[in-house]
Amino acid sequence: MVNDELRALAAEVATQLIAHKQVLTLAESCTGGLVSAVLTEIPGSSEWFDSGFVVYSNQAKLDMLNVKDYNIDMFGAVSEEVAADMAVGALFQGRATISASITGIAGPTGGTEQKPVGTVCFGWADINQPLITTTKHFTGNRAEIREQATKACLDGLLSLTINSDL
């Protein structure tokens, strides 16, 4: 279930998207659509939310978002390079003016020494601003990591929309 903190943060993001006349699309992997779900709980979200892609497999990332296979091969699906490709690919799939992407390892398995469980990469793309990527490391169980990743994605969107030039 979505907690009150995420609901409040989603409402702030929605307010900023409306204020700046932005339309959002999302590309989610390890969160499985959780960010999209939190945002679309808000009545009237169709005004500022265009689409959400759940691209769990590498093939879905390639097929749906034009992620470069080179980036998956060289850096892995959990990388800022792939998060960047996902954000840009999502941005140009519909009427969006801003996008966010998440790719990570929610666990309990799948981690490595270089990329342990809880490693999550993000991308934020805006047609009027430079692309932003970052990597965060979360702790907890699968649900907790997904929730933390959702919050970090929303925080990034809030920061991006507040600093929007529109």
- What is the overall number of helices? 6
Helical fraction: 40-55%
The CATH homologous superfamily corresponds to CinA-like
Distance from first to last alpha carbon: 34 Å
Give the averaged pLDDT, no decimals: 95
CATH topology term: Maf protein
Shape, please? globular
Structural class: alpha/beta
- Biggest sheet strand order reads 2-1-3-4-5
Q: What are the segments in which pLDDT stays under 50 over at least 5 consecutive residues?
A: none
CATH architecture: Alpha-Beta Complex
Cα gyration radius (Å):
15 Å
Name of the CATH class? Alpha Beta
Keywords: Hydrolase
EC number: 3.5.1.42
InterPro entries: CinA-like_C, CinA_C
Pfam families: CinA (PF02464)
Give a concise summary.
Its EC number is 3.5.1.42. This protein is an alpha/beta fold and 166 residues long.
Topology:
Elements (H helix, E strand, L loop, with lengths): L3 H16 L4 E5 L5 H7 L8 E6 L3 H8 L3 H7 L4 H12 L6 E7 L14 E8 L2 E9 L4 H21 L4
Parallel strand pairs: 1-2, 1-3
Antiparallel strand pairs: 3-4, 4-5
Helix pairs in contact: 1-6
EC number: 3.5.1.42
GO molecular function: nicotinamide-nucleotide amidase activity
Protein name: Nicotinamide-nucleotide amidohydrolase PncC
